[in-house]
Amino acid sequence: MGRVRLGVKSAFLALTAVALVTMAGVAAGAAGVGAAARPQVLGLSLTGVVDPFMASYVQRGIQAAAASHDTAVAITIDTPGGLDSSMREIVSAIVSSPVPVICYVPPGGRAASAGTFVMLACPVNGMAPGSAIGAAHPVGVSGAIEQTKVTNDAAAFIRSLALRQGRNADWAEKAVRDSISADAASAVNLHVIDRVAPSLQTLLPSGDQLVSFHRSLAESFFHGFADPNVAFILLDIGFLALIVWAFHPGFHVPLAVGVVSSALGLAILETLPVRLAGFGLLLVAAVLFVLDLKARAHGVLTVGGIVVFVLGGLLLFNPSVPNARISPPLLFSLPVAVGVGSTFLLRAMLAARRTPLRAGPQTLMGAHGVAETALDPLGRVRVRGESWSAESVGDPVPAGTPVLIIAVRGLTLDVFPEGGSL
Fold it and tell me: Strand 386-392 to strand 412-417: parallel, antiparallel, or no bridges (unpaired)?
């Protein structure tokens, strides 16, 4: 009995030892895997116009890096600028980030306007040879530098960002007030950036793995629409569709197209440095197209509308903001197409409105039909595939007899048998 107990105890001890060894092996393996995993840096791409969709993307990226306990966030910047409100959201996310943020301007890129604020807000920043930073003046809807109050506010904000990171606050303020710029070599000498780097990888901690963080489908879709050419096309479509609807209110498709296109175009303009003079000229051009048809000016006002349309496109965006312009082929070809197309379309619609209505009972005068029932004198006849109440103005008409409609009284047809006599 003692031996049995000893055997059981020995077996129990052996199993316990095996379990402990196994657990130790698993723990060691897990530790080995953890040790083998490389630290991760989450890579974001701030390209194109700084708009609400880019702000949402950067905020999500920083939150994701914090949730995953990543080593840092690396933002590649190539932007002509954008909305002040969106820029401030990005800056706020950077300065409050629980993980370090690295900003980098790639070769041939630029951190202009709003991008300058973002670069100066980053704890670590760098630029590639051939890149640029600066021209951070605030541009408003009028297309000119904003009022003194707004300029002073922007200058104070960018100065505070530079001082926060120990950078050249005087140069930062001049970038706002005087629209100065600097290339990569000058920026590092001016102590605006930390270093000139041939690639983003050289700015990352040694051994860290760069993992890309992509925009959502909605962010990519709407950010892609924030383009001057897209806005110009949508506004043209919207204006033309609304003009068509004004001449034909019963046709609701142009109204829907006009409202949707105009709304999207205006939403895009909200993210761009628009000048009211250019937008007003586009409206004047649309009015000239309409007046040409109303006044029957034989194309004179349409030609004027095309010229005004081109001028409106040239003045629509502030030329001091890079890439905020309409491509020349689109600028000169689209107004001509809109002018010619609106002329032909609206002339056809006006001609249709002047054409006498060719429907209803009155159009049955002189038509031929067949008596469906005997007319003595009342009955029914079939004319053009439809059944009508009818009255014979002569002798009774047997069913199946061909008849001629000689008058229409409301919904009753006066008929006469073909070949008969009064």
Answer: parallel
Query: Could you give the CA distance from residue 13 to residue 349 in angstroms, rounded to a whole number?
Result: 98
Q: Pairing between strand 368-371 and 72-78?
A: unpaired
Asked if the bond preceding 273 is cis, omega within 30° of 0, the reply is no
- Closest by alpha carbon to 158, among 131, 186, 179, 132? 179
How many Å apart are CA 136 and CA 156, to the nearest integer? 12
The residue type at 377: P
Expressed in angstroms, the distance from the first to the final Cα of the chain is 137
Q: Report CA-CA distances (Å) from 28 to 14, 23, 35, 275, 410.
A: 21, 8, 10, 66, 99
What is the rounded CA–CA span in Å between residue 37 and residue 24? 20
The H-assigned helical ranges of 248-299 are 252-269, 276-295
pLDDT, tens only, 307-346: 888 888 888 876 655 556 788 888 888 777 766 766 676 6
From CA 249, how far away is CA 295, in angstroms rounded? Answer: 20
Task: Report which residue type is found at 371.
Answer: A
- Three-state DSSP at 325 gives coil
Alpha helices in 300-392 (DSSP H): 300-315, 328-354
Question: What six digits make up the tokens of 216?
Answer: 């959502």
User: In terms of pTM, does the model score above 0.85?
Assistant: no
Per-residue pLDDT reduced to its tens digit, 207-228: 899 999 999 998 888 787 777 8
The amino acid occupying position 348 is: A
Q: Which of 320, 351, 268 is nearest to 113 (CA)?
A: 320
